[in-house]
Amino acid sequence: MKAKQLILPIIIFLAIVLVALAVRLWPRTIPFDQCSDVYKRYAAVDGVVATFIKDYKVNDTVFVDVTLLEATDSVGWAILKKDFEVPPPPPIAKQLIDNGEDLIGVKLIPKSTTTDTLLNSYLNNVLAISHLNRTLTVFHTKNEDEAHTVVHYNFDKSTNPK
What is the CB neighbour count within 10 angstroms for residue 90? Predict the structure, then answer.
């Protein structure tokens, strides 16, 4: 009789655990129309894997949308470098990169031309460049304070790798 009484609570417990795991592990996708213009531009480009991340945590107070562009081959990397006007690393940096150091270069890039200048006077995003990993990360910042925080974040990431 006791075994029959334990079956229902065990089934309920297992159901709760399975629902919790499903919620935790279920992929969180964002509709295409809510992704950045940069993501939309590179989502179907051969040689490039585009990923859009909503509300990426830069620090305890700054969360920004991010588009990660990863070149899967040399043609994809050439396209990204050309499109984003990525300068070659200086000789000293190139030597460190060739030795496996992931130096993150940072530059400001203009936002999409669809940005309304009357509503948003800050017209730049932050581009983080990893020559070692052949990735470009576009941090979609809303103001100069966010941009400053993102630049500092990438500097720390470059100088203090984990």
Answer: 11
Alpha helices in 71-115 (DSSP H): 74-83, 91-98
58-103: pLDDT as tens digits: 999 999 999 999 999 999 999 999 999 999 999 998 998 899 888 8
d(CA 128, CA 123): 17
User: CB atoms < 10 A from the CB of 9, how many?
Assistant: 9
CA torsion sign for 11, 14, 20, 25 is negative
Instruction: Output the six-digit token pair for 12.
Output: 């309920």
Give the integer Cα–Cα distance in Å for 49 and 153.
23
Structure confidence by residue, pLDDT tens digits, 27-45: 667 788 888 999 999 999 9
d(CA 87, CA 33): 31
Q: 42 vs 2, which has greater pLDDT?
A: 42
Give the Cα separation of 152 and 58 in Å (integer). 10
Identify which of 36, 40, 35, 66 has the alpha carbon closest to the alpha carbon of residue 53.
66
